[in-house]
Amino acid sequence: MGIFHKKETHESRSSSMSYAMHWKPENLRLVSVISLLAVAVVIITVIGLNSQDKKSISLVIDGQIQPLETRQSLVNEVLDEHSIVLKPEDKVSRSLASTLKDGDRIVIIRAIPVKVIADGTTRTHFTTQNNVEGAIKELGVSLDPADKVTPALTSALKSDLEIRIVRVDKHTVQQQETVPFTIVKTADPELLKGKTKVIQQGSEGLVTHNIEKVYEDGVFVSKHWLGKEVSKAAQPKVIAVGTKKPTAVLSASITRKEGGVDISGLTSKGGVSFKYKKMIKNVTLTAYSAEEDGIGTKTASGTRVQEGRTIAVDKNIVPMGWWVYIEGVGFRRAEDTGGAIKGNKIDVYYDSLKAANQFGRKKGRTVYVIGPTKPELN
Fold this sequence. Notes:
Layout: H1 10-53, E1 55-61, E2 64-70, H2 75-81, E3 91-92, E4 105-109, E5 112-118, E6 121-127, H3 132-139, E7 148-150, E8 161-166, E9 168-179, E10 183-192, E11 196-200, E12 205-216, E13 219-232, E14 237-244, E15 249-257, E16 260-269, E17 272-276, E18 278-289, E19 310-312, E20 323-326, E21 330-336, E22 345-350, H4 353-359, E23 362-371
Parallel strand pairs: 1-4, 5-8, 10-14, 18-22, 19-21
Antiparallel strand pairs: 1-2, 3-4, 5-6, 7-8, 9-12, 11-14, 12-13, 15-16, 16-17, 18-23, 19-22, 20-21, 20-23
């Protein structure tokens, strides 16, 4: 058998080439369009993927806001990316291992050092608190209401601020004071005038004073008087003072002598009862002083003049050294004489010339001549 070959004709070859030439321009146009679409899809996909991975976040450090763009997913990765180093005391608003998403915020508060001086020690403490009170509480330091804190608890913190705590202790102590008794005098019409009698003995009182002493860090600084309590009331001493008038002459005897009458007897004057040798009436009184020219301080009897005691007399009327009672003046002693002192005249001594001049001249006085011994109070 023979093999039959397809007969090739000029017409068939021509048709194939014609078709190929006819398809190529259209096919190239289609391929170009498809290629462009594919590239666009790839670009959009890449852009989408990139846009989905990139995040905009805010980083706030000590109140300063920094907007950031990052492809990192974790907080610690973002901090490392921007070389942000944290101290152990710094405060971060989010966990370092937490995942970030677009729009998130990371807030960092840097801790600052402050010095706290208390109880004899100084400590440096890093804190993120806002005021002094917060830092003290964070340290666990307890405060009593009386303690002093400088600066004030509400003061804002700043770096290296020195906070001083002064411990204030207050102690109440008691001090006792004795109160002297008073003396009360009361009139007693049954008691002879010039005499006294103790009705009630006085006794001292006792007062307790409450005093608050203040110590700062163990050192005494001040004390305050809080008040007092009467532990024992004082009892006054009560003295009865006699107001009964004494009888002027209790007894008297009259002796007639040559040239006059001598009256002796017993009387009471100024609360003192005494016997007198004679009574002289219508005596004139004057006064003198050592401040006068020619008047010395030594008396005619050899004693030294003394106000309240010395008088100058006529020694023929009153013997030298004898005591007398002068009405309105009191007890005096005859110690001196004078050229003008004759008869019923007596000169009363005063230290001051002014007092002597003020005494002047007094007439019509009665004088009781007692003797060499001064009567004593009954």
